[in-house]
């Protein structure tokens, strides 16, 4: 049986939901499709966006509307050799080497579209192997990725492609998709069930339709209920890549919400990470750094709390340690902030690198032997403890070249 998501997949641009900036009037894809009728030109593309926004669908539509042969692969289980053989077997070249200069891959309909899903999973050598075909125009390459192409696609391939950003689908976009699906299956959907389905799908059309299809088979009657959707979904789908760009975006959002003294937003980003399965000790380590970097001497207790939260995560783990992290996050967000230590250390580190191994002043050198004492090590050292924590003005602890330097305000 054909899956519902594939059955209602858009066949042309007008059927696609969302991406108005790309597909609407004046959008780059719309304009390219118009011009290719006269010029025959269509560029290679990197389609970058979260799961379920229509990257594969768009590639198929482009191939159809430009009247080109379409080859679809996944980088998860495909090699460059497999792609080469597939194209050769379909009679697109008479050359024994698909990548050679004399390959007659182009036909009257133009170069074929070669679509590779999850292109970020190809290593550097595999991506390098695609370059000749893309550069010579033997194929129109389309790669789909959920990861930032700047990090995951090699620069030579990236420079030969146009990066097209496909944003997460809105609830209104998913509403239209659900309507199409309901028309196909011939059932109604309760209002609360519809809202729950759309919100739980997190902008992912594939998740939305797959859950609806399962609920359809769970419900023998004419109307799919909230409980049907809940059973089909099992739990809210938190899409959070524990290694990819979204991981760094989310931890950045947590850090900056704390720095900006917004405890409510900080709690939200913490929950986003923990509920999606992020290692709590990683978050705790970041909080230790944050306590010194963004709060510092304004509240030295912050560092103690951060270390305590880390120990709680190590000892009891999730889900019990979630409140220990929440306590630390809220405490930090409400604490007075100062980056004085962060800036001061940066200046000190710059001087250490800039001036190299400046000699330690003799009077503060260690003198464990008689010879060292005889040559002046430790001579006239003032063994002094200030009750107020203030330095005596006539004693210098810096190397001569940095005498009188101030890093702290």
UniProtKB/TrEMBL annotation:
Gene Ontology molecular-function annotations: ATP binding; ATP hydrolysis activity; DNA binding; enzyme activator activity; single-stranded DNA helicase activity
Species of provenance: candidate division WWE3 bacterium RIFOXYB1_FULL_42_27
Keyword set includes Amino-acid biosynthesis: no
Keyword ATP-binding listed: yes
Keywords attached to this entry: ATP-binding, Nucleotide-binding
Family the entry assigns: Belongs to the AAA ATPase family. RarA/MGS1/WRNIP1 subfamily.
Lineage: Bacteria, Katanobacteria
Protein name in the entry: AAA+ ATPase domain-containing protein
Any GO BP: DNA-templated DNA replication
SUPFAM superfamilies tied to this protein: P-loop containing nucleoside triphosphate hydrolases (SSF52540), post-AAA+ oligomerization domain-like (SSF48019)
AAA+ ATPase domain residues: 41-170
Taxonomy, superkingdom: Bacteria
């Amino acid at each position: 049986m054909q899956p519902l998501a594939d059955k209602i997949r858009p066949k042309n641009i007008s059927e696609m939901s969302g991406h108005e900036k790309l597909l609407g009037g004046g959008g780059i894809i719309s304009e390219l499709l118009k011009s290719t009728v006269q010029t025959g030109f269509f560029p290679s593309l990197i389609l970058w966006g979260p799961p379920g926004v229509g990257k594969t669908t768009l590639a198929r539509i482009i191939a159809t509307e430009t009247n080109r042969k379409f080859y679809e692969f996944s980088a998860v289980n495909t090699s460059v050799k497999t792609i080469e053989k597939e194209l050769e077997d379909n009679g697109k070249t008479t050359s024994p080497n698909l990548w050679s200069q004399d390959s007659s891959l182009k036909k009257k309909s133009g170069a074929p579209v070669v679509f590779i899903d999850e292109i970020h999973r190809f290593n550097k050598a595999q991506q390098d192997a695609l370059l000749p075909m893309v550069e010579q125009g033997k194929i129109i390459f389309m790669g789909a990725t959920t990861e930032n192409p700047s990090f995951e696609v090699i620069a030579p391939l990236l420079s030969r492609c146009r990066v097209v950003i496909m944003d997460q689908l809105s609830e209104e976009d998913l509403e239209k998709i659900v309507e199409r699906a309901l028309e196909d299956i011939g059932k109604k959907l309760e209002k609360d069930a519809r809202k729950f389905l759309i919100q739980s799908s997190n902008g992912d059309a594939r998740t939305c339709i797959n859950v609806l299809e399962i609920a359809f088979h769970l419900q023998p009657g004419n109307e799919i209920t909230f409980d049907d959707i809940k059973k089909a979904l099992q739990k809210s789908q938190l899409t959070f890549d524990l290694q990819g760009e979204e991981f760094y975006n989310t931890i950045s959002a947590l850090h900056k919400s704390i720095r900006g003294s917004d405890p409510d937003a900080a709690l939200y980003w913490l929950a986003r990470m923990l509920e999606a399965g992020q290692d709590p000790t990683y978050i705790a380590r970041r909080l230790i750094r944050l306590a010194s970097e963004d709060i510092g001497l304004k509240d030295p207790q912050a560092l103690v709390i951060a270390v305590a939260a880390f120990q709680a995560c190590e000892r009891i783990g999730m889900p019990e340690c979630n409140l220990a992290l929440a306590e630390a996050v809220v405490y930090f967000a409400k604490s007075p902030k100062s980056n004085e230590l962060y800036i001061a250390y940066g200046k000190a580190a710059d001087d250490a690198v800039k001036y190299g191994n400046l000699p330690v002043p003799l009077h503060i050198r260690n003198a464990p032997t008689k010879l060292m004492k005889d040559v002046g090590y430790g001579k006239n050292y003032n063994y002094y403890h200030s009750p107020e924590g203030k330095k005596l003005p006539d004693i210098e602890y810096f190397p001569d070249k940095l005498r009188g330097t101030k890093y702290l305000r």
